[in-house]
Amino acid sequence: MASIACIGVGNMGGGMALNLVKAGHRVLAFDLAAAALERVVAGGAEAAASAQSAAGAADVIITMLPAGAHVRAAYEGGLFAAARPDALLIDCSTIDVATARTLGEAAAARGLAMVDAPVSGGTAAADAGTLTFMVGGPAAAFAAAQPILAAMGKAVIHAGGPGTGQAAKICNNMILGATMIATAEAFVLAEKLGLDAQTFFDISSKASGQSWSMTSYCPVPGPVPTAPSNRDYQGGFAAALMLKDLKLACEAAQGVGASVPMGAEAESLYQLFVNNGGAFTDFSGIIRLLRGPDPA
Ligand code: NAD
């Protein structure tokens, strides 16, 4: 069993760290927020005094931080220097492809093994250990990371070289954002055309309009009882996080000259939804924006 430094044990990283404890690993946790740290310590992790002290005592360093700037500051500001020469570095945060590549290259230049390994699945999957990891990095680093990630997820997939895990994540979520909007607007149109929502679901979910957005997170309450739409769009995948991923996708597309008109439209609609107070509701709640104001 390994000694694992978990840097960032918030909503996602907390559940992930606890699954590593359950798998028998020694977890050295650090977070700037005391409450986040207390949760994992209560579950069997050890609190470290700093990110560097955790990293210096670990075989594996896992970061789960908000965004690229935090990740870059953490590695360049101390983790690279503190890491043991044979340590494995795993960044599970969702960040921009360019930063992930830069950090992968910086690690390689220091002789350190590093992968970018963003996740699909929200806090429920993090707690249950059923995340999907999309991993970018050298084959040997992937092979070393695989058993560690498998303790926190149901699928661990090698996407290619440094940054390709992040590329897979944002391309996947660009599809997700666009299909959710398309699904939501189709339900609104069906409703206005006098078609019952359950009947439309029964037809479209078995026809070519079917997608994960329809069959797992159906934006109207009823057809999929576990979908956030049945809980007034609470829980699930926050629209603010969808917007973050769409921004990353559009930035990356600009960087390589790719045309992403649907992704760009999805970004502007989620921006509008977030500006109108939807940030913390599930991303399927965008159906409210598309439906428009209730007639007085
Ligand atoms: P969060 O804000 O709950 O957790 C981030 C944690 O990092 C916080 O506890 C914060 O205190 C800590 N932190 C920030 N800077 C730090 C530093 N320098 N050193 C130590 N700790 C530091 O966010 P989250 O929901 O856990 O998301 C983490 C990452 O996972 C993000 O990149 C997010 O996009 C991605 N993600 C989230 C979800 C989700 O459903 N929440 C799903 C998939 C991916």
Number of domains: 2
Query: Mind telling me which CATH architecture of the largest domain this is?
Result: 3-Layer(aba) Sandwich
Range of helix content? 40-55%
Identify the CATH class of the largest domain: Alpha Beta
Please name the CATH topology of the largest domain: Rossmann fold
Name given to the CATH homologous superfamily of the largest domain: NAD(P)-binding Rossmann-like Domain
Strand order of the largest sheet: 3-2-1-4-5-6
Main sheet characteristics: 6 strands, parallel
Structural shape: elongated
Strand content: 5-15%
Low-confidence runs (pLDDT<50, min 5 residues)? Answer: none
Q: What's the total count of β strands?
A: 9
Number of helices: 13
Secondary-structure element sequence? EHEHEHEHEHEEHEHEHHHHHH
Query: What is the first-to-last residue Cα distance?
Result: 63 Å
Bound molecules: nicotinamide-adenine-dinucleotide
